[in-house]
Fold this protein.
Amino acid sequence: MGRRGLSRAIKRVSIPLEALQRYVHAWRFEDELALAGHALPDITSLSLFGDEAPLELEVGCGTGEFLCGLAARHPERRFIGLDPSTQSLNFAARLAFEADLKNLRLIRAPIIALYPHFVPNALDAAYIHFPDPYVRSRQIHKVVNASVLKHLAQAMRPGGTLSFVSDHEALFQEALRLVEAAATDWERLHEERFLRGFTPDVKSRYQLKWERYGVEAFRFEVRRRKV
Ligand SMILES: C[S@@+](CC[C@H](N)C(=O)[O-])C[C@H]1O[C@@H](n2cnc3c(N)ncnc32)[C@H](O)[C@@H]1O
């Protein structure tokens, strides 16, 4: 199934209104302006869940299979899925609703919209898995860029981890160069420069699709250095 077929399959699924109300924060630039920069809550466990449990963020969570899988296995942690696609995020809300997840919220926004809402030391982990290779503005990738890495580093507690996975070799190499250039913020968690293959407990529909075509994933994991 191509990307269009995948999107049609997601579109056909009906989403209970309660699922959207319970899980999704929708962001709009107009609201951010009207509310003087307060369109979203702070990205902390306290403001999103009312407690101080460890908080993890997936940037570009798509339809949410990987993140909902993590949230189901780790009720002691809190999870945020971020994605600008309404269709994908609605699908993720349905998964969360069906699993009755109490530790997950979804934010419909691009990563850049989160910058003013990040709080230092609030994140324990972040995931950038299978970012779209072609979303660029003036040559700069919208998710894989130095500014995203910097903002994640500032929001991450020392020792917090960033996992990056891609099946697109050129984009993966770009991400690897960026994180190596940010060596004052991040240190690698493995001896190898990068790892091959990715076998989480729950794979996303995107990962499963490309695995069927025999495409290999590349991966690195880094930790926020102590300042
Ligand atoms: C190929 S999907 C991967 C989804 C998921 N991470 C997975 O492993 O299956 C990439 C996702 O990144 C999202 N995306 C695109 N631009 C983005 C941005 N500026 N900020 C955050 N997510 C973005 C897309 O909407 C899409 O759902």
Q: What stands out?
A: The first strand starts at residue 24 and ends at 26. The CA atoms of residues 43 and 118 lie 5 Å apart. The first helix runs from residue 3 to 11.
